[in-house]
Each structure stands twice: as structure tokens, then as C-alpha cells.
Amino acid sequence: MPDDRLSLLDRLVDHYFRRRPVNATFTGMHTLDHRLPDWSAAGVSLLLDEMRADRDGIAAVATASMDDCVEQRDWVGMDLALADSFLEIQVAELEGRHFQRGNPSLIIGEATFAIISLMIRDAEPLEVRARMARARLAALPRFLAAALAVVREAPVPSTWADKALKECGGARALLGVGLDRWCSAPDMPADLRTAIRHGGDAALGAVEAFATEVAALPRDAEPARACGADLLALLVRRGHWCDRSLDALLREVRDAYTVEGARLAEMARAVDPAGLDGVQARLAATHPSPEEYYSAFRTTWEQCHAVSAAHDLVTWPDAPIRYVPFPDATREAAPSLYYLFYRSPAPLAWPAVHDYVVPPIDQLDGAALAQHLRAWNHGVIKLNHVVHHGALGHHVQNWNAARSPLRIGRLAAVDCASRIAMFLGGTMAEGWACYATDLMDECGFLTAEERVSEQQSRVRMLARALVDLEFHTGMRSFAQAVELYATEVGMSPAAAHGEAVKNSMFPGTALMYWLGTSQIHRLRDAERARLGSAFSLRAFHDTFLSFGAIPVALAARLTPGGAAPSPASTSPASTPPASTSAA
Fold it and tell me: SS3 for 420?
């Protein structure tokens, strides 16, 4: 039986990559770098059948209870339970029209990042990656046409179509000047350069045809689509491993939103008589000079590392990171795409040095340069680009995840074309990154103004959780979601609209930030109470992170005390996963 379970796990991971080759590239598994996924009607139907069969296979061999798996550190048993959670969610997604069967944005995103994923990594020689890119370019027209044929079967939300059209602009920039710049490298063979240009031209034509068809698609009556309470509850229960009801979560979020909003106003007035507006003006005025812009990231990173070491917060990994401008090849495309400043390093091909990309300023001057520097002020650099992403937050968590004893824990939070590899990695990835900023605040790393800014982020996090829960259960309209963001938490109209669109596209995702962060704080409090004077932050954090990108609820059960992260937020899988025929 143990051999059967391990063989099944091997097959499940192999199947995951074969059906998601772009995810495989981002993960560092490069044998599929020449392929695109099959999102045609036949391809989706086949994938559904395969995933249902995989769930039946798991049910046949995963007979141990989750309690036994946790107690015995049965990593294979836990991996199979995590895989079953992932598969159940994927099946539910593909049975409906909320994801690639109904959203053209996901299609153009997958196509564009299939190429970008080969351009921005140097794990393989340039010529090898270029040959893989040529193959993907050749397959791109068919991929776009076949996937869009599925979407065309039903009306689409107007905001999703608009987002796809914007991303087509990014694809044009990438396949035009972007490919030309990438191919201008001196070690690119001339014949390959020519072939890629031909492939890029054909792909550009396919993008134009795709954009024309998307613009003509029938529109839903509503500008954005809610997933409904049933799917949202499934995402919470099987993705976040949280067995609390949606109503219970909503009550807690509403209460916390009110309390933290009042605290924000109080904190802001204590720092500046003008309140939040005055604090924001102070933050914007405290920014690096043009000459200091790039070095400010490194300097702040080193300060963060020093404070963490002084407080013995965590075992800091040997995982160098450097802050660099966007690559020339993707510079024009990036603003129109889901182009992350920090993209998780590939766990299966961890780089010697990881590049964190930031917008270049070499072509800015005058008012445009001043505006950029005010937006990228020292507070933004510290809170977002160092603590949350490039240092104690995501980067430290990703390094630990890559070494997890759980294979799912190594893969789940890898950044892919439009979202992380597996939904179930979200409470750990985002919960830890938000918790890390709280932790650095506790250590005195933030200025008074930065503490107000972080409190505003906390309120926004709660607002996003509130919208996630209310919009997808029909209690808040899209327009009301935009209004909340714009009038209550200080987002610009464009940012408020963009956030609401993202919330609608990815149900349960905005919730994971608050849920994961609050679970980690509760777990730490429980462990501190259990251990008393023997409690060590470093030991707690090292142990917690070692499990990888798994639901915080499961990581809590794996801590030595086995504490639950909240009164009713635990694993939903105390019994073996049910087969699909019984689900």
C-alpha cells in the first residue's frame, strides 16, 4: 500500500505538469517548455475526466485519517489529501464558467506568459529557451482560437472582456518590440532569430483576431460575475481548509473592519492633525532621489535583515535577491499585464540570485519623475517591496516552501500566468507575507507614518475580504464593491475598479490574506501560552515555515502543540477523501 500511494503521488504530480505546461515552466520543470495547455472543448472535457479518475484513485489508497497522518508525519498521506483538495476545486472550476471556460482574460494571460516565462528565466541557455519559445509561438494561434471557442458559448462579463482587451495590448508589445529586443542578444543564432520573428508575426495576427472576437462577444447583464455561495463555500472549506461558515466569517470580518477602521483614523490623527491625508502627504514627500532610487531597495533590504537578525525572528536563508529594472524585452508589455515585481523563484530550479524587478526611471524627467518617486517613496519600498515581498515575507517563505517535505507544499504558491499554482497555498503565502509586516512593526522597524500606512493596508485587507464574501454571495453588487474601495479605504477610482474586477475573477482569493494572517497570529498566541518562557519566535517561525505552502490550518496541526489557528478553522479532511462518485 505505501508503494501504491507513492506511485500515485508521482503520477498526480506528473499529470499536473503535463496538463499545465506553463505552470511547469514557472516551477522549474523544463521538459514541457515547448508546449501550451489544451483549453479546447475536448481538452477541458478530457481534463475533467482525468481529474475525476485521479480523485477516485486517491480515495482507493488514502485510507488513513488526517489525524493519523499528522500524528505519524505521514507526508505522502497528507500530500494525497492536499492533492484531492486541489482536484476537487479544479473540477468545480471547470464544471462552471468562472475560469478559463468563461474568462477571456485567463486565455490571453496564459498565452502571453507562456512566452514571458521563457524570457525572464536564465536556468537554461538562451538558445535552448529560444527554441522552446519558437515552439510555443507556433502553437499560440491554435491555442487562442480553441480556448476562445469555449468562452464564446455563453455571454461574458464586460469587465472581464475589457481586461482581456487591455492584456492584448501587452501581448502586442511583447510579441513586437519585446521579441525583437530579446532576439537581439549577441548569442542568439541568426536563423533562430529569424524563425522567432516569423513566429511572433503569426502570433501577433492571432492576438489581433482574438481581440476582435473578444470585443464582439455577447456581454452578461452584470459587469462582473459572482461565483455563488456554493462554490465560495467549497473554496473556503477545501482550499483554505477552514470549516467555518461563510456567515461566521463575514460577521468576524465586518466587526474587524469597523474596529480597524476606527483605529486607523485615531492613529492618523495622532501623527498629523490633518489625519490620513496628512500622513500620506508626509510619506509621499519622503522618497529617494533619482540617484538613490535603485540602491534604496537594497539599503532597506539590508536594514530589514539586520533588524530580523537582532530580534532572532527566523533562520534567514542564503537566498540572494537583487532589485533591477524591468528587462528591456518586457518593459513595454508589463503595465498591461499581470506582471509581478516579485515573482516566486522556481522551487525546482532555484536561482543563484533572484531578480526583483522595478519600474525603470531612466526615461522619466520633470513632473513624471517626481510623481514616480513620490509614489515609490521610502514607505512603499519598505512595506511592500522589501518586508512583504523581497525579504522576510514572500521570499523567506518561498525558500522554505521549496524545501518542504510535502511535494504539494513545494509547488502550491508558485506564481503562474494569472494566479498561484494551487489555490490551497494562499493562506500560507499571503498570510505569512502580511504577518511578516506585522512582525517588523512589533520590532520597531516602521516609522510612525509607516505604521499608519500599514494600518491602512490592514483595513484594505479587511475590505477586500468583505467584498469577497459579500459579492460572491449576492449581498453586494459590483458597483457597490467599487464604491466601498473608493470612498471608504482610499483607493483611486481606477484602482477601486481594478480591485473589484480581480475580486470577481478569483473568488476566495481576497479572503486568504486576512484569514491566513489572523490564523498565524492566533497560532503564535496559542504556542506562546503553551510554552511560556520556553517559547522562541525563531523556533516557532522556522517550524511553521518548514511545511511549505499548505493551508495555515494544516500547518497549525503540524506544529508541536497541534494548536488550531482559530476557534473553528481547521482541516476539513479528518476522514479519507471521498471518491468523486460519492461527492
Answer: strand
Tell me the pLDDT band of 514, cut-offs 50, 70 and 90.
very high
Q: Is 0.70 topped by the overall pTM? A: yes
Q: How far is 10 from 33, CA to CA, in rounded Å? A: 20
* pLDDT per position as a tens digit, 517-539: 999 999 999 999 999 999 999 99
Q: Give me the DSSP letters along 28-54.
A: T-GGGTT-----SHHHHHHHHHHHHHH
Can you give the pLDDT at residue 121?
86
Contact between 396 and 316 under an 8 Å Cβ cutoff? The reply is yes
Asked whether 354 and 368 are in contact (CB, 8 A), the reply is no
Q: Residue 365: exposed, middle, or buried by beta-carbon count in 10 A (0-12, 13-18, 19+)?
A: exposed
H or E segment and range at residue 65: none
**Residue 221 CB: number of other CB atoms within 10 A?**
7
d(CA 569, CA 429): 17
Cell of 581: 462518485
At residue 578 the predicted structure's pLDDT band, cuts being 50, 70 and 90, is very low
**Residue 194 contacts residue 223 (beta carbons within 8 Å):** no
Contact 89, 240 (CB under 8 A): no
Residue 233: φ, ψ to 5°: -65, -40
CA 505 from centroid of its chain's CA atoms: 13
